[in-house]
Design goal:
The protein is mainly α and about 80 residues long. About 80% of the residues lie in helices and about 0% in strands. It contains 2 helices and no strands.
């Protein structure tokens, strides 16, 4: 095999590697953006959940004491 053929093969491989590298960089950037969006969404949902819990706790506190200690009965049954 001649030196020129070897150089051509190495050149072709390097070019393919560079293309693959650029593709992986683009994929990594897209995945990083997705992680950031999902992290923001998770944080927003956690905040909303916390606010909802606070509202439920406030409503429970407003219940009369007599209602606060009674267990709910299953639907269709009587006490």
């Amino acid at each position: 095999m001649s030196n020129q053929t070897q150089i051509d093969q190495i050149t072709e491989r390097v070019e393919r590697l560079l293309l693959r590298y650029e593709e992986l960089q683009r994929t990594n950037a897209l995945l990083s953006e997705q992680v950031n969006r999902l992290t923001e969404e998770r944080d927003s949902l956690r905040s909303r959940l916390s606010a909802a819990r606070a509202r439920v706790d406030a409503l429970i506190e407003r219940l009369p004491e007599s209602l606060g200690h009674t267990a709910p009965t299953p639907a269709g049954t009587e006490r």
